[in-house]
Design goal:
Elements (H helix, E strand, L loop, with lengths): L24 H4 L25 E3 L5 H7 L5 E6 L4 H15 L6 E6 L4 H6 L7 E6 L2 E7 L4 H17 L20 H11 L3 H14 L4 H16 L4 H10 L4 H13 L3 H14 L2 H18 L4 H14 L1
Parallel strand pairs: 1-3, 2-3
Antiparallel strand pairs: 2-4, 4-5
Helix pairs in contact: 3-5, 6-7, 7-8, 8-10, 8-12, 9-10, 10-11, 10-12, 11-12, 11-13
């Protein structure tokens, strides 16, 4: 192992990546590198011979790259094919990252062909390595590094991902996603929903969670069907009137928030309940907070409206 530590990357501070997803005529005429995949819904794919989680990307594909970083950390190697050091570093990164079987993704950027990406990351030398977590840049290192150093830095990146809720996996690039069979209890719940039997669906999802407590799809399904169950016989106009007449009534405010989420007025529902959390205490506050967290699950943890509302809720609570 080399005694020389890799230099810290210089991409600290504000980095504007917002324009990189825009269509660019020059980029559009470039040969099309492997396309970044959409985040998967299923479990981690098993590593198979020849499978790779490494892809060359251009400016057009950068929006997809940012989206993938909401699911798994994306390592971005900024180099050039004319540099032997860049080529060697990319091969080391590829071997290590592909060994993680989708928990990490490697994006290769040729800075000669994609100068806008290098400029966005404020790259001062190549090769340089940065990462993306939830669309935000994370400095890694500049120059070459020994495989042991790279592996250690990537483990730190994975731990940082855990802290920020980025713990998913993506399928190998270029591989079609295998259609996963629906677990029997999930199918039972969906059939019950189709039949309007919300109580039956709740029972099926709870059985699934009893068998597998970390079944995220069952947990989300349960939150959805409980929302349907709560609102099955509600009238929006009547609920709004009751909430206006009783601005501090827990039941009345929760009822309107449920109906707003169901009707697509997500931000209104979140704002209503965050405000109510701030006006309540003890068991009432916990009841409202729990309903808000349930509605977050219905909308989706990665939804921008959920992210913003969570920040507001944290300020109210702490």
């Amino acid at each position: 192992m080399s005694n020389t530590e890799p230099a810290a990357a210089s991409s600290r501070g504000a980095v504007d990546l917002s324009g990189l997803g825009a269509q660019d005529p020059q980029a559009a005429s470039a040969p099309g590198p492997a396309q970044m995949p959409a985040p998967p819904a299923g479990p981690s794919p098993a590593a198979t011979e020849g499978a790779t989680w490494t892809a060359a990307v251009n400016q057009q594909e950068f929006t997809q790259l940012v989206q993938v970083s909401n699911t798994a950390p994306v390592v971005v190697s900024l180099g050039t094919g004319s540099s032997a050091a860049s080529v060697q570093l990319d091969e080391k990164l590829r071997r290590i990252i592909d060994g993680h079987a989708g928990r990490l993704v490697l994006a290769l950027v040729d800075t000669d062909r994609e100068p806008a990406i290098a400029q966005a990351f404020r790259v001062q030398q190549v090769p340089s390595v940065v990462a993306l977590l939830n669309g935000q840049p994370v400095p890694m290192f500049q120059g070459d590094a020994a495989p042991e150093q790279i592996a250690s830095l990537l483990e730190e990146l994975l731990q940082l991902g855990v802290q920020h809720g980025v713990t998913g996996t993506v399928p190998p690039f270029g591989a079609p996603e295998a259609e996963q069979p629906v677990p029997p209890l999930h199918q039972e719940a969906m059939d019950a929903i189709d039949a309007g039997d919300y109580a039956g669906a709740v029972t099926a999802y709870r059985k699934a969670l009893a068998e597998k407590p970390n079944d995220d799809e069952a947990q989300t399904g349960l939150q959805h069907v409980e929302l349907l169950q709560r609102t099955a016989f509600s009238d929006l106009d009547s609920a709004r009137k009751a909430a206006a007449d009783h601005p501090d009534g827990i039941d009345e405010q929760l009822a309107v928030a449920d109906l707003d989420v169901l009707g697509g007025h997500v931000e209104d529902a979140f704002a209503r309940l965050v405000s109510l959390v701030g006006r309540t205490a003890a068991e009432d506050r916990e009841r409202v907070r729990a309903r808000l967290v349930s509605l977050y699950a219905v909308v989706g943890a990665q939804d921008e409206r959920v992210v913003k509302s969570r920040q507001k809720l944290a300020r109210v609570l702490f």
